[in-house]
Specification:
It is found in: Membrane. GO terms for molecular function: channel activity. InterPro entries: Aquaporin-like, Aquaporin_transptr, MIP. It is built from nine helices and two strands; from the N terminus they run ααααββααααα. By secondary structure, the chain is an all-alpha fold. The longest helix is centred in the first third of the chain and has 23 residues. It has one domain: Glycerol uptake facilitator protein, CATH 1.20.1080.10.
Length: 313
């Protein structure tokens, strides 16, 4: 018998899936470098991409720009879209260890995986240093011996909001005062699991004919999630997005939530996607002569074999 590979789809009918080899779908959603890209080039791509994202996030969440926060979700969405257009062909534009580790675990695929940890973490820390050095207001004493703010690059009068108490909180991710730690953990898990679910669907090989708008899909997904969850936790969905500013501002309030939440949500979502939409292989072995049991041979055949052997002797 021929080896038969069948698809077991729990929810989505076969007719709604577009393309792809069932034998390969077990490893979809994995993150790796383009075959023509060196390890060093891939590392630089992830450092630069994540650095741009964190620098942009610091500018958006700068408390002095509070009056311009009406379109923050769309800004993040467009930023992700642009980064995906640029870096997806080379590294997949992960930007997020939680996005990479979940598929790596259940695919057992760890090729160049360290790049998607070292790159984003390095890029986030470097970018937050640059933003802090350029735009963090300095505190000095005025003639009345009172603390005042002076900008390093951006003049204070050009900033919409600024306070001495906010000088060490640039780009910090934290929970809303009315949100508990458990609620924050669940919100980060839920938002990241939705993002991971979209990522798995986008990179599913059965949808390879619909990859022309991948950056827009990621961008609008991030914008939608930021609109829904941003007011409660900042909708980080990315541990390194929170780590970089926390390191250089020395602000660690509820920091653990932004590691356990995204990573846990990504793992749960990726496992669920594989369980619901994954491909199950069914293989039936051929009955080759070497594997036929001796007692399955007819007695008359055994007698004929003995007679033939006597004649040959």
């Amino acid at each position: 018998m021929l080896i038969d590979v069948t698809k077991t789809i729990a929810i989505t009918p076969n007719g709604m899936l577009h393309a792809g080899n069932p034998e390969d779908t077990i490893s979809f959603c994995k993150t790796d470098l383009h075959e023509n890209l060196s390890v060093f080039q891939g590392l630089l791509c992830e450092i630069i991409a994540t650095g741009i994202l964190v620098f942009f996030a610091c500018g958006v969440w700068d408390p002095r720009n509070e009056k311009n926060s009406d379109s923050v979700p769309m800004r993040f969405g467009f930023c992700i879209t642009v980064l995906c257009f640029i870096f997806i062909p080379y590294t997949g534009c992960s930007l997020n260890p939680a996005r990479s580790i979940a598929p790596a675990i259940w695919n057992g695929y760890w090729n160049n995986h360290w790049i998607f940890w070292i790159g984003p973490i390095s890029g986030a820390i470097i970018s937050s240093i640059i933003y802090r050095c350029l735009f963090l207001p300095k505190i000095k004493k005025n003639e009345d011996n009172q603390n005042t703010l002076t900008g390093v690059v951006t003049p204070t009068e050009n900033l919409t909001l600024g306070g001495i108490d906010d000088a060490d909180k640039l780009c910090i991710t934290d929970l809303h005062p009315n949100v508990s730690a458990i609620q924050g953990l669940l919100i980060e898990s839920l938002s990241t699991s939705i993002l991971m679910l979209v990522a798995c669907a986008i990179w599913d090989l059965r949808n390879e004919k619909n990859t022309d708008s991948v950056p827009l899909k990621f961008g609008f997904t991030v914008a939608t999630l930021a609109t829904a969850f941003g007011p409660y936790t900042g909708c980080s969905m990315n541990p390194v997005r929170t780590l970089g500013p926390a390191v250089w501002n020395n602000q660690w309030s509820h920091h653990w939530i932004y590691w356990f939440g995204p990573i846990g949500g990504a793992l749960l979502s990726s496992i669920s996607y594989r369980t619901i939409f994954g491909v199950q292989r069914s293989v039936e072995e051929e009955n080759v002569p070497e594997r036929v049991a001796l007692n399955s041979v007819d007695i008359s055949q055994k007698t004929e074999l003995k007679e033939v052997s006597k004649i040959n002797v």
